[in-house]
Specification:
This protein is an alpha/beta fold. Helix content is 26%, strand content 26%. The strands form 5 sheets. Strands 5-2-1-6-7-9-10 form a 7-stranded mixed beta sheet. It has a 4-stranded antiparallel beta sheet with strand order 12-13-18-19. The longest helix is centred in the middle third of the chain and has 25 residues. The radius of gyration is 23 Å and the shape is elongated.
């Protein structure tokens, strides 16, 4: 069987493990997932012909032009890298077509793809999406699963169509969400699950056994991109809901609230997981305890906070923070 010619399109760090797995498989070696899904079939093999990623961007206070980590990975292995400003550029589409890819693999690329691009792949253009579709189409799907209190999430491999995350599903790989798992931790675990899903889908495509299961339109939900302002704590949430949100939004966008320091200045206070849920109640945002730990009332119940970071300072224990700030029982945080 001839090697599948693959173009990988990705930018976010969640795509690194999947690209790395294709670099390993580029020598034609059979992956474990192939042998499990097709025990009696000739193993599929792959030729990674190019990486397409977003242009280098200025990063940090000094705005240093920085390449995506996935670009460095590909170039370190001698893989050609393309970085069009727009994936709709005619010159880019012409160059991509000349590569004659059998499969275009997309994961966290960051641009909407045109039909002209989708038509270039001779077998399929597929996407690895970090949710169990049709639930959580769009961005911030990892955070959404934790925030909603879901017990499971996973990776979905689907065909790419012009509508957002609406393509037919090839397969899904599920994983439970840990009781104390943060958005960052779940992101990293899904990144490690994705290669198995990818290689199983590629094997099925190569052998003509890939399914196309339409998504149920009655079960579709959309999640918009998270912005920094979404991390503003809403103290009217229940303690259980707020505990999940603090975990979900770690490390981005983080969760914080306004407070007045001992000099009468209004400042920001970032709150880190893990926080404990308590049944003790009060007015939303009201400080209930400053005895070593910081306890603040929610819409129902309260949360007990162990670790914080005031703006302009380092991360510290709640006990250290309370020694240097005049929060007392009865104060209300989060007010404008």
């Amino acid at each position: 069987m001839a090697k599948l010619r693959i173009v990988f399109m990705g930018t976010g760090d969640i795509a690194l493990s999947s690209l790395r797995s294709l670099l390993v498989a580029d020598d034609g070696a059979q992956s474990n997932s192939n042998s499990k899904s097709n025990p009696n079939s000739e193993p599929a093999s792959y030729e990674l012909v190019a990486l397409v990623t977003q242009p280098d961007k200025p990063v940090g206070r000094k705005q240093v032009l920085t390449a995506p980590a996935i670009k460095d990975l590909a170039q370190g292995q001698g893989i050609p890298v393309m970085q069009p400003e727009s994936a709709r550029e005619k010159s880019f589409l012409k160059a991509l077509k000349a590569m004659a890819p059998d499969v275009i693999v997309v994961m966290a690329y960051g641009q909407i793809l045109s039909q002209a691009l989708l038509d270039i792949a001779s077998l399929a253009c597929i996407n690895l999406h970090a949710s169990l579709l049709p639930k959580y189409r769009g961005a911030a799907c990892i955070q959404a699963a934790i925030d909603a209190g879901d017990s499971h999430t996973g990776i979905t491999v689907m065909h790419v169509v012009k509508a957002l995350d609406a393509g037919d599903v090839i397969l899904k790989k599920e994983t439970p969400i840990g009781k104390h798992e943060t958005g960052g931790e779940l992101h990293d675990r899904l990144a490690e699950i994705a290669p198995e899903a990818l290689h199983e889908a590629l094997s099925q495509l190569a052998h003509g056994s890939a399914q196309r299961e339409p998504q149920d339109p009655e079960k579709v939900s959309y999640i918009s991109k998270l912005m920094r302002e979404h991390g503003e704590i809403d103290w009217t949430l229940t303690a259980e809901a707020l505990e999940r949100r603090i975990r979900a939004y770690e490390p981005w966008p983080g969760t914080s609230t306004a407070f007045v320091d001992n000099k009468g200045r209004q400042r920001r206070l970032k709150i880190f997981p893990q926080v404990e849920v308590s049944e003790q109640g009060g007015k939303p945002g009201q400080v209930l305890s400053t005895d070593g730990l910081l306890s603040i009332a929610c819409g129902q119940g309260s949360i007990v906070i162990e670790s914080v970071q005031p703006d302009g300072s380092r991360r510290m224990s709640a006990a250290d923070f309370l020694m240097g700030n005049a929060l007392v029982v009865g104060d209300v945080v989060g007010s404008s």
